[in-house]
Amino acid sequence: MRIGCVGLGRIGTSHVQTLRAVPGVSEVVVADVDGARAEGLTSPAAEGLAAVSAVPVEALLTAGLDGLVVTTGSAAHGTWVRAAVDAGLPTFCEKPLATSLTEILEVAEHVRRSGVAVHVGFQRRFDAGYRAAAEAVRSGELGFVHTLRGVASDMLPPAAGFIPGSGGIFRDCLVHDADVIRFVTGREVVSVYAVGGTKGADFFAAAGDVDTGAALLTLDDGTIAMLSTSRYNGQGQDVRLEVHGEHGTVAVGLDDSLALRSVEPGASQPTGPVYTDFYSRFRPAFADELAGFVAMVGGSPSPCTVDDALEASRVVEACDLSRREGRPVLMSEIPSALPAPATS
Question: GFO/IDH/MocA-like oxidoreductase domain: which residues (predicted)?
Fold first, then answer.
């Protein structure tokens, strides 16, 4: 199986190395607007590792691929997904599917019409802890679920230049929580109320963004989900979820890597080391996610469809609107489909 990868920044380069070790992959074909970067990744096949070859960006879709991984800048995601499915290529796209809700709606509709499988990269669906939490809910072990509490905080803020094109903290960070709430509970969000603030670098406010945000989500069965996110948690990467039910509570992320320090007398946990970035926190999940994509290329269903990505994007769109307007937002206010064409 020959898998293409376009866009060779940090995550793209990491995905190339991961793909080399996925069973069934014989070659990874890479392309980037910086041709030298692509050439620098080329490598012959080795024991247990696929070969890596490079082609110009404009030649990638005609390079005899079986599937394509899109890890370009976010603004180009929609263009590449459309082109890939038009070429009949099963596609993996890092989130977001596009940088505006309107374009996400357009891309999702384009993919549906094509009939080609697309997998959108929400790696928490492949994390062992989140999967165990989902199973605890689905098995009935917890009884009815009434509350979820999620945390997603970065150890260090991104560079100033990243923020203006990021879509804001809800679309960039909390979208993972929005997706995993749906994944764990199997329910849909019906309303949100969100707030945000900035106590850090001036460039967040200059871009109309915040460096800390929180959202209260109500699900369609009355379950409450409370989510918080921040660009500042200097002790380490902190990504957690608590699921509270009738018969008990389970938690994701409560191990020795937890970037918290207890001030209770005699408490010695957690002992570390902490994670310093999101990729190291989810390294096994990223690997399993790409293996899931290769299985999809082989005919398995998409593990995270364009419709899943659309619903997560609608939730954070509602969060951003709520934060800006200072009011609760019903999900019915957020478009779920393109407007019908005007009739003459």
Answer: 130-250
